Amino acid sequence: MLKIKTKNPVLDLGNCGLTEFPLEVLKCTHLKELNLKTNYRDSDLNQLISSSNAGEPNSIRVIPDLKLLSTRSLRIGFWDEKQSRYNQDSIWAIENLAFIQNNPELQILNFAGCSVSDLAPLMWLTGLKELAFSQNQVSDLAPLQKLQQLTSLNFSDNQVSDLAPLQKLQQLKSLYFWRNQISDLALLQSSSS
What pTM, to 2 d.p., does this model score? Predict the structure, then answer.
């Protein structure tokens, strides 16, 4: 059983070898950032941030409804940014994102390597600024089309073929879509003016 005794608004549980989501976290209403990843790229600092824990990577399959958390940043999944590699053995099978749809405070979501295919629960998270969903199974970006605060998207290694849903997102500054099925970039040229 995990005992959380801090009131720090940032909780780093990356590399703790977790196989289940620690329910004690739901009692931490003071949290603003929750990290369950090995490492991640911080777009504000433009640098790689590694978990301070030295254990095994987490591999969680089920995440409870997180509506009690008021986190602004949630990082889940596995992608080893240092080695620029994806560890197939550490795939997080989180296919349904319904557990986050009641979190209007969320601004940053990082779900690399989680088997996500449906982004529909994100359509209500109008405060989202950054999404990192590399190494998933996403093909449809339509649920993002009204998220006007988005500034950064990373959907590398997915099945995206159409960028049209992003056309009216005027705040976008960073797009990462390598290893997808995109053939028409005209949309990006017309939105850059």
Answer: 0.84
